[in-house]
Amino acid sequence: MKNSNSKKKINIISIAIVGIASLVLGVALTAKFGITPQTDAQSFWKEKAEKTEMPQLEPNSFVKLAKDLNPVVVNISTTQVIKQKPMVPFPEFRSPFEDFFGDEFKFFGESPEREFKRQSLGSGFIINKEGYILTNNHVVENAEEIIVTLSDKKEKEYKAKVIGKDARLDVALIKVDANGDLPVANLGDSDKLEIGEWVMAIGNPFGLSHTVTAGIVSAKGRVIGAGPYDNFIQTDAAINPGNSGGPLFNLKGEVIGINTAIIAGGQGVGFATPINMAKDILLQLKEKGKVTRGWIGVSIQEVTPDLAQSFGLKDKQGALVSSVNKDEPADKGGIKAGDIIVEFDGKAITEVSDLPRTVATTAPGKTVKVKIIRDGKEKFLTVTIGKMKEDGEEEVAAGGDREDLTPEKKLGFSVQSITPDIARRLDLKDTDGVVVTAVKPDSPAAVTGLKSGDIIKEINRKEIKNLKEYKEAMKTASKADTVLFRIVRGGNTFYVAIKTKTKE
Questions:
Q1: Stretch 307-333: mean pLDDT, rounded?
Q2: Suppose 239 and one of 270, 285, 355, 458 were both cysteines; which one would form an S-S bond, judging by CB atoms 3.0 to 4.6 Å apart?
């Protein structure tokens, strides 16, 4: 019996020794490899760890928020260098001194470009105690000098430098050397923001420092044409010139948006960039000064109700792939023209604009699952994300619904080859020609009645059998004032004449 107890004690002691040794070894390895419980992102900016419910709005809620949050908001004053040619009254006349003394004596002719300085104001907010400040790119773009004023009693001013900026998202990271701990804003989760939720904006409208306004979230996911990744929060909290770059807070005092845009002459309509979109690129701005985005190499278009019906979809959803660039990530992953992407890396693609944003924020080199609908059936593909070109303004993240000036783009429509799947869905016995996939509203094509699903058989009386012949014919035909198309629609054949030039 004693031997049994002794063995138990020895086993317990052995287990304890092994546990302690494992703990010590784990701590040593953590220290050696720099592993910490927090990610690099979480250690760079501050987020509330506790899961708190949204507080109820009380009479003095905004009073307390304003007192607590004012210190994290800064005034940004910039001196920008602008290049512009001065206006001249009589460009048809030449100065008699011009031939002798050059451009400086062009009294009436074309004058040389001149530089002048412009003062502008904006807002920002401190995200790191070392002096990192988040603002809009357009607030500091081309700035020769950036002055940041803190909202303490002494209103100290500091010169700031640009750490990184991203024109596409209109976000910039700047830094001041304040030689001390600074108050820091908590960054919230903009994905959890609800329409109708109370929000508060703090900024410097018209140079009036630290102005506080409040309102509600009017809408989410607004596309206003500001850039390829539009996904704005719309609010009726008053936002005016000078508010740009300032924070939009929720009632928990968390930043859920960056005040970015307004509608000229509009009242009660302001737009903020969701803070989660800024989080996606913050570390890149800090470490690289710029953003490297992912792309997959496809052209995409909206799934209209007509196209949804043609492809056998119950609901209008996803992004329709109209073409795939050869040997690019999407092509290597098996994506084909006619596929409808409804999910990317676990994120639902509801609207066509969702895909470029999602791809752009995915790190190049990452392998992701892509859910598509092909021939009416769901299918999962694997795609390894590529890197968007540095000068890729014309290559949006999804690869390109490119804004090139091809003849059909000028006329306001797009086409693709007639695949067996399209032929089956449109009940086509003849697969010669190309199919119209989209028509831009109010375009020359729309005015003449061209519709999605129309089959183009001829261009200017020249027969078209495939996409290659179509492109060759369009290059020649678009040089004329009018292009004549022979169209097949629902078994009926007719001609459509679209003007390539309009009167000024």
A1: 86
A2: 270
Structure-block tokens of residue 492: 């009926």
Domain spanning 51-76+124-140+150-291, CATH architecture: Beta Barrel (2.40)
Alpha-carbon distance 395 to 291, whole Å? 15
Q: How far is CA 53 from CA 56, 60, 251, 362, in A?
A: 9, 18, 10, 30
Q: Look-up: residue for tokens 């509801």?
A: 350
CATH top class, domain 294-387: mainly beta
Q: Let me know: does 284 contact 290? Beta carbons within 8 Å.
A: yes
pLDDT for residue 326: 87
Report the alpha-carbon distance of residue 403 to residue 185 in Å, rounded.
39
Which of 278, 415, 430 lies closest to 337 in space, CA to CA?
A: 415
Q: Which position has the token pair 């292009």?
A: 483
**Residue of 138, 190, 421, 454 marked catalytic:** 138
The residue behind tokens 């392998």 is: 367
Does 331 qualify as catalytic in the annotation? no
The C-alpha atoms of residue 350 and residue 347 are separated, in whole angstroms, by: 9
Distance CA 479, CA 468 (A): 18
- 51-76+124-140+150-291 shares its CATH topology with 294-387: no
Residue 76: pLDDT band (50, 70, 90) is: very high
Q: In what order do the strands lie in the sheet containing 114-128?
A: 157-159, 143-149, 73-84, 114-128, 132-135, 171-175, 161-166
Q: pLDDT at residue 253 above 90?
A: yes
Give the phi and the psi of residue 244 in degrees, each rounded to 5: -55, 130
Domain 407-499 has CATH 2.30.42.10: yes
Q: Is 170 one of the annotated active-site residues of the chain?
A: yes
Confidence of residue 90 (pLDDT cuts 50, 70, 90): very low
The pTM of the full predicted model, rounded to 2 decimals, is 0.62
210 is catalytic: no
Which residue type occupies 392?
A: G
- 120, 244, 299, 310: the catalytic one is 244
Residues 6+ apart with CB under 8 A from 61: 55, 251
If pLDDT is split at 50, 70 and 90, which confidence band does 111 have? low
DSSP codes joined into one string, 109-129: SPPPPEEEEEEEEEEEEEEET
Band of pLDDT at residue 309, cut at 50, 70 and 90: confident
User: Domain boundaries in the chain?
Assistant: 51-76+124-140+150-291, 294-387, 407-499
